[in-house]
């Protein structure tokens, strides 16, 4: 070894003594550094364990997709590496042991993009990744939203999903890949879950739909649709579009469903080969006797509260709390410990039954509105005249204050993500302070809900912003929720559109948003929906007690953004498509109110907003303008800011 090592690169002077020249096959790394790898032709070292890995390959949208398990993260309850082209994503799932003593599902989804996936060292002081970025939180929500409804009722054990991008060629967005990998990992695990699911991305270029588009294709597309489903029902929709009509959007959804279903069979086959037997977990369910007992004590009183339209949000809440305390007192006198342990959940179940029954049978809602009626609207633009742009938007008890700040092109946000553009010139920051719901709370860092709501509104408004060549400013829009009783993200879209016009930004169209809900009646024998009602502009209580929160934003011409979240294990696509028309009717009503307040961009002559001027210089004059080593240029910047 010594005679060979004396001629070797200095790097190998520190190699362990047991490495021999025979077992090393050398190669040159593209950066010019020297590396080594075990030769494929050499026999395996004695005692080497051969890993039992299982793989499924299939094709969707001309992309070859692989699912592999057994090679990486073998101790995880379920672990899968999904590959598409040269991009690979690892997803793992684990679950807590023992009995759960809670009344909710503590599901945590962590998605991470580390820079090593593209051979880059992070550009930070510590040269390592820090807190989760906005994009990582959003990708985590893409995974969370479709898998959450499929956990069985009463399953309250802690579940953690961790998705990591192992390598990225920059061609594919790994978010959809991570969602499909997570579905497969859950199928392989012993955790009870009602999957599998398929998640697909659909684009549209020159009027033609594209399945699994690349990032380059998405830059040319007027639609970015992410769709998740089971074999026959929709679970989640996320859309960014450039005013796509409801008819064209429905065509995209109906194409997405069969394409997403193609992910299901490979997952089932892989689970059959390498999956674990599903473990029996204790489910926290309310017994029929307890539910009947609580219903007899509380249903009449709850119905009286919900049929009285004079109650406001907090008055209604106080009356319902009083009913709960009265039921608790009665149960304590009867020494009914079983009912006392699940009392809050049992009362909530009775509330749900009362509200849903009234909506389906009578067509009336908690606040007395008809099913398609939008709450009273108040609009005010320019309410803070010293700012570059401002607005106040109220719909019922929901109220948001939006402000616009204009900046120079250099103020654009720099992004450090594996895919997508390097900078962002339009930023929408949504804030949900605890006083908006009359609660005490701490202000923390990035909040998943705030990031998700803000990004939804940002997508909705981005479609109508003028091109950068025509309007080179950087724009920051702040949405401060002043009061919340449902659909604050859609109120942000409305208030943001008015504030942008107040700032003098030439939007193509006003954008408004409305949230559509669903109340359904399930056939207990088949589990299918036998009757349902679509509800426009839902309250916070209707969101909690209903089946669907379908947020749809757009202009008079078409849809610009969508976010669908559901509670049951899927909703038929026909109902989703029917909801688009209900949302359009509500959106047009809101746009009429907004147009009456402000319908065109205001001039900024009397405001302190920044100005961008373009001057042309000859080469000789330009040298004199800049000055020696840029001294005059820096002086101008200091004096004019």
UniProtKB/TrEMBL annotation:
Record protein name field: polyribonucleotide nucleotidyltransferase
- Keyword presence, Hydrolase: yes
Give the residue spans that cross the bilayer: none
What SUPFAM superfamilies does the database record attribute to this sequence? Answer: Polynucleotide phosphorylase/guanosine pentaphosphate synthase (PNPase/GPSI), domain 3, Ribonuclease PH domain 2-like, Ribosomal protein S5 domain 2-like
Task: Tell me the CDD domains matching this sequence.
Answer: RNase_PH_PNPase_1, RNase_PH_PNPase_2
Q: Which Gene3D superfamilies match?
A: GHMP Kinase, N-terminal domain
A Gene Ontology biological process in which this protein takes part is: mitochondrial RNA 3'-end processing
Do you know which Pfam families this protein is assigned to? PNPase, RNase_PH, RNase_PH_C
Q: Which family does it belong to?
A: Belongs to the polyribonucleotide nucleotidyltransferase family.
Q: Which UniProt keywords apply?
A: Exonuclease, Hydrolase, Nuclease, Nucleotidyltransferase, RNA-binding, rRNA processing, Transferase, tRNA processing
The highest taxon in the source lineage is Eukaryota
**EC annotation from Swiss-Prot or TrEMBL:** 2.7.7.8
Residue stretches making up the Exoribonuclease phosphorolytic domain = 62-192, 195-257, 373-506
Q: Polyribonucleotide nucleotidyltransferase RNA-binding domain spans which residues? A: 291-370
Q: Which organism is it from?
A: Dipteronia sinensis
* MF terms (GO), sorted A to Z: 3'-5'-RNA exonuclease activity; polyribonucleotide nucleotidyltransferase activity; RNA binding
Primary enzyme class: transferase
Gene Ontology cellular component terms for the protein in this record:
chloroplast stroma; cytosol; mitochondrion
């Amino acid at each position: 070894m010594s005679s060979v090592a004396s001629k070797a690169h200095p790097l190998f002077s520190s190699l362990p003594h047991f490495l021999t020249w025979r077992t090393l096959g050398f190669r040159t790394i593209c950066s010019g550094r020297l590396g080594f790898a075990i030769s494929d032709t050499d026999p395996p070292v004695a005692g080497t364990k051969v890993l039992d890995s299982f793989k499924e390959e299939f094709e969707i949208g001309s992309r070859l997709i692989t699912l592999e398990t057994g090679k990486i993260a073998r101790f995880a309850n379920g672990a899968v590496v999904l590959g598409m082209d040269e991009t690979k994503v690892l997803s793992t799932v684990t679950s807590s042991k023992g009995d759960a003593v809670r009344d909710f599902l503590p599901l945590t989804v962590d998605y991470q993009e580390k820079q090593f996936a593209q051979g880059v060292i992070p550009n930070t002081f510590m040269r390592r990744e820090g807190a989760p970025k906005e994009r990582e939180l959003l990708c985590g929500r893409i995974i969370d939203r479709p898998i959450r409804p499929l956990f069985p009722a009463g399953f309250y054990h802690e579940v953690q999903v961790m998705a990591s991008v192992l390598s990225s060629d920059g061609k594919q967005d790994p978010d959809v890949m991570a969602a499909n990998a997570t579905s497969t990992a859950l199928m392989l695990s012993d955790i009870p879950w009602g999957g599998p699911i398929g998640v697909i991305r659909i684009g549209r270029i020159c009027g033609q739909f594209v399945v699994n588009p690349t990032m380059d294709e998405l830059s040319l597309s007027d639609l970015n649709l992410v769709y998740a489903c089971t074999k026959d029902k929709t679970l989640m929709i996320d859309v960014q579009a450039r005013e796509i009509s409801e008819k064209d959007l429905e065509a995209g959804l109906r194409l997405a469903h069969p394409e997403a279903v193609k992910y299901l069979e490979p997952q089932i086959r892989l689970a059959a080969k390498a999956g674990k037997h599903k473990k029996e977990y204790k489910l926290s369910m309310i017994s029929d006797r307890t539910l009947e007992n609580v219903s007899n004590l509380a249903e009449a009183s709850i119905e009286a509260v919900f049929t009285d339209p004079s109650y406001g949000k907090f008055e209604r809440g106080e009356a319902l709390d009083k009913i709960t305390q009265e039921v608790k007192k009665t149960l304590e006198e009867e020494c009914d410990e079983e009912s006392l342990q699940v009392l809050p959940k049992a009362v909530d179940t009775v509330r749900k039954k009362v509200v849903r029954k009234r909506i389906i049978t009578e067509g009336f809602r908690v606040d007395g509105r008809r099913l398609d009626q939008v709450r009273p609207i108040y609009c005010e633009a320019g309410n803070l005249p010293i700012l570059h742009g401002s607005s106040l938007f109220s719909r019922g008890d929901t109220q948001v204050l939006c402000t616009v700040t204009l900046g120079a092109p250099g103020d654009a946000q720099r992004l450090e993500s594996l895919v997508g553009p390097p900078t962002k010139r339009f930023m929408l920051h949504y804030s949900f302070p605890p006083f908006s719901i009359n609660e005490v709370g701490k202000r923390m860092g990035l909040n998943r809900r705030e990031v998700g709501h803000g990004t939804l509104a940002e997508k909705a408004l981005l479609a109508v912003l003028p091109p950068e060549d025509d309007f080179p400013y950087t724009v920051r829009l702040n949405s401060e929720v002043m009061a919340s009783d449902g659909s604050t993200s859609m109120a942000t879209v409305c208030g943001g559109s008015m504030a942008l016009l107040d700032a003098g930004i030439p939007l193509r169209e006003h954008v408004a948003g409305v949230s559509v809900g669903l109340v359904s009646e399930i056939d207990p024998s088949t589990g299918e929906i036998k009757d349902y009602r679509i509800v426009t502009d839902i309250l916070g209580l209707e969101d909690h007690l209903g089946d669907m929160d379908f947020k749809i934003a757009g202009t008079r011409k078409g849809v610009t953004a969508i976010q669908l979240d559901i509670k049951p294990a899927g909703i038929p696509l026909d109902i989703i498509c029917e909801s688009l028309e209900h949302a359009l009717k509500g959106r047009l009503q809101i746009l009429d109110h907004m147009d009456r307040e402000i319908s065109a961009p205001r001039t900024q002559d009397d405001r302190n907003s920044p100005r961008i001027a373009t001057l042309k210089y000859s080469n000789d004059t330009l040298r004199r303008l800049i000055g020696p080593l840029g001294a005059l240029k820096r002086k101008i910047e200091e004096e004019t800011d």
